[in-house]
């Protein structure tokens, strides 16, 4: 992935990137201001959290997450993969979790994980305006968000082309004690 695009994300910009499921509108997970901008770009309901994608399980520490034994067993089985796990986090990250827990995924795509090693954890949401179908390609994404600005502080700074992507979203789970609750059945079928 393009070095200039990495810099746009690191400096607080927004980009559209291919993930291991669909195209995502992405920004630095540690910048509240740019996360707010993603919500505005998507016209997204303020109570719907974003999904954080990480490059390695060790990135959980950056959010102060200590996994329970059940969580550790689960993520060892399903990560890297197309399963998003919700973790409890401190109030410091409330702008990401909206009080519902922090949704995190370790993508099952080595190229994306390498990109994330350079950018750090990214807050993502499907590349579309809320209520409309997710973009399957860059042309569709540009219809939603306009041409790339090439800038950090407004609009979508860049589009990273990953070809045609059409998939169900990730499966979303929450683990409470020994109970695994499936909140959204996505591409990975869990019993």
TrEMBL record:
Pfam families: Sua5_yciO_yrdC. Residues 1-188 form the YrdC-like domain. Its main location: cytoplasm. Its EC number is 2.7.7.87. It is an enzyme of class 2 (transferase). Keywords: ATP-binding, Cytoplasm, Nucleotide-binding, Nucleotidyltransferase, Transferase, tRNA processing. It is found in: Cytoplasm. It catalyses: L-threonine + hydrogencarbonate + ATP = L-threonylcarbamoyladenylate + diphosphate + H2O. GO terms for molecular function: ATP binding; double-stranded RNA binding; L-threonylcarbamoyladenylate synthase; tRNA binding. InterPro entries: DHBP_synth_RibB-like_a/b_dom, Sua5-like_dom, TC-AMP_synthase_SUA5. One of its GO terms (cellular component) is cytoplasm. It comes from the Bacteria. GO terms for biological process: regulation of translational fidelity; tRNA processing. Belongs to the SUA5 family. This is L-threonylcarbamoyladenylate synthase.
């Amino acid at each position: 992935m393009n070095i200039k695009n990495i810099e746009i994300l690191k400096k607080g910009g927004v980009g559209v990137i291919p993930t291991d499921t669909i195209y995502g509108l992405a920004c630095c997970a540690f910048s509240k201001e740019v996360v707010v901008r993603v919500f505005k770009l998507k016209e997204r309901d303020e109570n719907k959290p974003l999904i954080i994608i990480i490059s390695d399980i060790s990135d959980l520490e950056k959010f102060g997450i200590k996994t329970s034994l059940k969580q550790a067993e689960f993520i060892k089985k399903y990560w890297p993969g197309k399963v998003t796990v919700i973790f409890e986090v401190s109030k410091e990250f409330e702008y990401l979790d909206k009080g519902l827990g922090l949704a995190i995924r370790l993508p099952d795509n080595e190229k994306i994980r390498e990109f994330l090693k350079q950018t750090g954890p990214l807050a993502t949401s499907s590349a579309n305006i809320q209520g409309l179908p997710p973009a399957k390609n860059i042309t569709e994404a540009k219809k939603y968000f306009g041409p790339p600005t090439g800038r950090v502080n407004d609009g979508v700074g860049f589009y990273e082309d990953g070809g045609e992507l059409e998939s169900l979203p990730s499966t979303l789970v929450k683990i409470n004690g020994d109970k695994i609750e499936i909140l959204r059945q996505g591409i990975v079928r869990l019993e």
